[in-house]
Amino acid sequence: MSSKPCVKICAAIVFFVPSYVIANTVIDFENPLPGGLVATSYVQSTIVPASAWVTDQYLNVGLVVDGAAIVALPSGSAPSGINALAGIGGDGRIDYDTPVSFSFFAPGNSGVMGTTDFFGYSADLFGSSRNIITISAYGLDGSLVGQVSYTETGDFTAPLIISGVGQFHSVTVDQTLYNTTSGGIALDLIQFGDISIAAVPEPQTYVMLLAGLGLLGFMVHRRKQDI
Question: Which part of the chain is the Ice-binding protein C-terminal domain (predicted)?
């Protein structure tokens, strides 16, 4: 785990807005943790116990996480205090080279997808390793909305963000870990803007729609009889 770099920004797919946008929600991953979460070791290749897997424990604020574990960092490493997130590899071990995904939903309801126009996080406070970080944002249909890259070359003095690309439903943070001995970059202080919820038709709307389809079917049937 290494981290805290000077930022190099590349407009890969879309523009990157350098101005900082105030987040509506910030998650610091500090104790007390929700849903029985217990932080595990931050060390690369540590086997992740079930109690450290982060999934929907933060759904109450509209966030679902995939591929990440709560880890306890060395003293002075986490911007928020002690804990942060690290990726989990396919073998169930801590792997800073594995992408971590964040998706947005109606708070408390994973059945209703949401979108936001801002996402960011703070990297841990360790040194540099020239790891490449790519943040990709995806729409409700899974299409790529925007992408921005950072290179860890010194110290990250501000959150790493993606914004100004329009509304997106999910974000993937992908790090290219060149040197496993130098460690990867932990994710802390996850932040995002207001969550917008797609309008859900009211019950009477469904009734009118079904009635309309029924009428259309009847008219087609009558027309076939008249031919």
Answer: 199-223
